Recover the amino acids of this structure.
């Protein structure tokens, strides 16, 4: 399996940018209990940016544990209270299936691609 985090010594790689007035946080590698604090810290930073939308680009995410799912649940309400939309984009089939099985795809907005998420009003 081609893991974007491979060779970096880290199980999780995060990179953020501004595009179209939105923040895009790209998540690569694995999101397990071990990486959750780093992930939550990055999400809090994005929330603090004041952007109306924060798009999580999950294209590089190869695995998400229940702890990773819990991290998404825990920040969902904070984004809503701050008036910012959290959008999960470009999830691989394995991650997309996990989101559907847990109904997180009903709680948190999803998009097939980052481009689709950026194009939304």
């Amino acid at each position: 399996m081609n893991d974007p985090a491979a060779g970096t010594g880290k199980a999780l790689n995060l990179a953020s940018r501004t595009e179209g007035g939105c923040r895009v946080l790209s998540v690569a590698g694995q999101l397990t209990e071990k990486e959750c604090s780093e992930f939550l810290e990055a999400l809090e930073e994005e929330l603090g940016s004041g952007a109306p939308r924060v798009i999580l680009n999950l294209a590089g995410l190869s695995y998400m544990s229940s702890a990773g799912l819990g991290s998404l649940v825990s920040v969902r309400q904070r984004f809503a209270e701050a008036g910012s939309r959290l959008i999960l984009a470009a999830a691989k089939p394995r991650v997309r299936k996990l989101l559907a099985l847990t109904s997180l795809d009903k709680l948190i907005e999803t998009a097939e691609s980052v481009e689709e998420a950026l194009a939304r009003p």
